[in-house]
Each structure stands twice: as structure tokens, then as C-alpha cells.
Amino acid sequence: MAASGVKDVEDEVFVLVTGANSGLGYSICCRLVDEFLTSRQNDTRSLTVVFTTRSTRKGNDTLQCLQSHLRTSAREPSAAARVTFVPENVDLCNLLSVRALSRRLNKNFAKLDAIVLNAGIGGWTGLNWPVAIWGVLTDLVHSVSWPTYKIAPAGLVTDNQTTSLADKEPRLGTIFCANVFGHYMLAHNVMPLLHRSGSPNGPGRVIWVSSLEATAKQLDINDLQGLRTLGPYESSKALTDVLSLTSNLPSTTPWVKSFYSTDSDTSDANPTTTSSPPNTYVSHPGICGTGILPLSPPLFYAMLVAFWLARLLGSPWHTMSTYMGACAPVWLALSTQSVLDAAETPYQRQGGGRAKWGSSTTISGVNKPASTELEGWGYGGIIGPAVVDEDRYRRRKRGMVDLTREKKEQFEDLGRECWRRMEELRKQWDELLDMEEASAGVKE
């Protein structure tokens, strides 16, 4: 729908989901539809799901699957008519492709209520099998929740982003660009659309999809792109945690405000809509079976059996299916702002802040979002023991200790430095891409 369309966008919800051709991204799209239709059975509001894949063929295949799911999920044709799917292509490791998608979105849509930044790559080449087998046999729950046996190479970089300025380009880590920086650039570029969100859910939302296993210890501020680490995926997910959880702190305000900023000409293109700064949240899918880790079919199903056993042994995070893993990001995307504020109020009331929301499950398979304890941030940034009963009684990662004031200050300092460096990197690349497009004759 074009930004100048006649439909009242106040009655429409627009959600962008990246990486939707399979796995978690596809399930997020399906669950968006199911929960939207279930929670809004008696109103006329509509949902538009804009999803990205890396090619037109994958986009068309995904579109057919989503339309089939909609026909099955909707109880009557009038309900199905309230949902629209829009496929888009983007390569997050190609910043010019990210720019092209951003322009199409800004041109063709009146607003975005939420963007779910899900796409990414693991970069693993295999497993350390002796360590993996020993861990599963002797310490199952911990081993399949916070694995230390995945093997990944260091130093992977993207192809050149430009042709005329290739000799001036800084290195850009492949995993960093796919999981963080491509999304970061995309989110900034569509800020005009996020600023126009308001009704029915509240301010626009930037929703990062992280990982249960990410911790701030895996992030080296002097290796922000994870080029020197053998855990570039974990480093990238730790960076998304730090950026999200510190996004509303006074110490990060100058750089967050710059990230949220919009071009004045673009942001005023639709003066009839409201403008309010978006909110940034972070989620994770728990532990579910996806194709991000290269495994043969027998090993994949063996992995699912291990996940099921871990759930039986009391793990709250083994959602197993990607549909259940989609619980937390969909909750963050579709809930009204009052619901999200109420969920974080217990933490903020005790001097905390944002929480990391994960998809959790009970032994019987009851699925719901849950706050996740994070090293350096605890539960929602609360110093000392957990203050929410569900957090207090949830199984913890072995070795976790209550958050101290010193550790929290270190986390906030890390967040401030991450935001500063990310904004500097964004502006550096924006200048390079501007020059590249000028030399190629690309017009806004």
C-alpha cells in the first residue's frame, strides 16, 4: 500500500520481518497472523506483513506457503481478507541492497509499527564432537542450552560494498554485517516509517532477535565486528543485547537519538500522521530446531531428542519448534504499549530498565514470553536478587550470580561505547555509499 493510499492507516498494523524464507523467520510471520486474528476477532483492523528473503524465487515460495497457512488459520474469508503479505528482497551483507530496500519501503508504505530483525547466519562449520557428546552425556541441560562446542572460523569479511571506492573501504565482518550492521542500517533508514506509528499499538518498535547463549563476556569492544574471535555469532548476538538493553539510558542518549533521527524531508512526507520516537527491544526464541547449524537429518533429529529431554529435566527454554520460538518476538510486535510497559514496570520500579524477553515453555508445552537473566544485566537490570516471582523460581544458568552495582555500571559503560562506535561506523558507511551512488548516478 502506497503512503498516499486512501485507507486509514490508523486501523492497520504493519510489521516487517527479515529472513522469513524458512525457520524462525517464517514461523514469526505465521504466528503474527494467528495471534493477530485471534486477538482481534471482533474488529476490522488489518495486518500487513512485509517479509524479506534473499531472492525473488524464495520470496514467491514463501508467499505461497504463508498464503496457504492463512487459508488454514483464518476461520472465514472475511478474516483472511484482513491479512496481506508483501515479499521483499534484501542481502544484509550488501549495504547497497539494504539501501534499495529502505527506499522501496519508505516509498510504498505509510508507516511501520514494528520491525523484527531476525535474519542472520551462524557461520559455524561443524561441531567439536568429543566435547559435544561428553557434555550431552554428563550435563545435558547446560550443554544444549549454552553450548561451547560449535566451531567457526575467524576473520570472515564481506565482498567489497562499492566499486569506485573499494580501496577506501574499511573491512566489514560477514557475521557482524548479516546479524547486526545490515539490520542497524536498515532500521535507521526506515525511521521515518517507525516514527509514524502510533495507533493501534503505540510507538514504533525495533525488535532484535538475539540468542539465549549470548553474554556480554563474548563481546570485545576492541573487536566490535568479531573478526578476531572464534565465536563471531555469539559476539554479534551479545552486541544486539547490549545495544537494545542500554537504548533508553541517559548515557547513550546522544547516539541513540542520532540512530533514531530521520531526514526532515522524508519524515514530513505524511504530515497527517503522528511522530514519536520508537522503542528498542530484544528477544530470543529459546532453543529450537533450525537449519542455522549444519547437521545431517539423523543428527538434526537426535538434537531434537536432546532438546526434548532437556525440557523434561526442567529447562524453561527448550521450545523445540520454531513456531513456539516465535512467541516472544511476536508478543513484542503485536502487544499494546501498555502491556509491554506493565511487563517491565516491576524492573523499572526497582531501578532497572529493559528486559531481554525470551520464548519459554513448561514441561507440558505451555508457551509464553519470559524475562531472561543476562550476565552483567541480571533480570531487567535489577541489582541483587530477582524481584519477579517467575524469575526467582526459573531455572538459572549454572554459575550465575546476582547482579552487582559494579557489573551493571560496566555493562552500561559497554553500552555507551557500543552505541558510539556503531553510530560512527554507520555515518562512515553512509558517506561511502553516498559517494558510490553519486558516481553511479543513483538518485534518491
TrEMBL record:
Annotated family: Belongs to the short-chain dehydrogenases/reductases (SDR) family. ERG27 subfamily.
Presence of the UniProt keyword Transferase in the record: no
SUPFAM superfamilies: NAD(P)-binding Rossmann-fold domains (SSF51735)
Signal peptide location: none
Protein's name according to its UniProt entry: 3-ketosteroid reductase
Protein keywords: Lipid biosynthesis, Lipid metabolism, NADP, Oxidoreductase, Steroid biosynthesis
Gene3D superfamilies listed in its UniProt record: NAD(P)-binding Rossmann-like Domain
